[in-house]
Write a structure and sequence with these properties.
Layout: H1 7-24, H2 28-34, H3 37-50, H4 55-66, H5 86-100, H6 107-115, H7 118-123, H8 135-144
Helix pairs in contact: 1-2, 1-3, 1-4, 1-5, 5-6, 5-8
Length: 149
């Protein structure tokens, strides 16, 4: 299952995952779980066009097309500090996925594995320092299966 995509397409998809998660009060792993492999590939291919559209519009399309219902996760309301932008978090995921791609057979598998791992919970905790940590630290922690000291 190969597709034409580039790192900017991956950045856009990761940012949209974050946007949809915030809009629907879901964890990012729950949003990704709603997307089939085929849907993720489609979104990577469509990113070149979709990036010209408002996030709100694409978000509404994802919610409808993939049946993403309202959740009860709200890491924004509980954040005691400045909330990182959707694109800042998208960049964290893009960087990590690109760094661990060689571990997986496809970008879709890498996306699914990263978002379903413990590191996704850590990145989504905006009261911690993980999301703005050094990318090498995030990658090494991901590979170790736990946050490193």
């Amino acid at each position: 299952m190969t597709a034409q995509w580039n790192k900017d397409d991956l950045f856009y998809v990761c940012s949209m995952i974050e946007y949809v998660a915030r809009a629907t009060h879901n964890k990012t792993k729950d949003v990704v779980a709603k997307l089939s492999d085929k849907a993720l590939l489609h979104q990577l291919k469509a990113a070149g066009v979709n990036h010209c559209l408002p996030f709100e519009q694409v978000c509404d399309e994802w919610i409808e097309e993939y049946g993403i219902s309202e959740g009860n996760f709200d890491n924004i309301a509980t954040c005691r500090y400045t909330v990182p932008s959707v694109t800042s978090i998208g960049r964290v995921y893009q960087t990590l996925i690109l760094e661990v791609m060689e571990l997986y057979e496809s970008v879709v598998e890498a996306i699914k594995k990263v978002y379903s791992s413990f590191i996704s919970e850590e990145i989504s905790d905006f009261n911690s320092n993980v999301y703005y940590s050094n990318p090498d630290y995030i990658k090494c922690s991901y590979e170790a299966g736990m946050l490193l000291d």
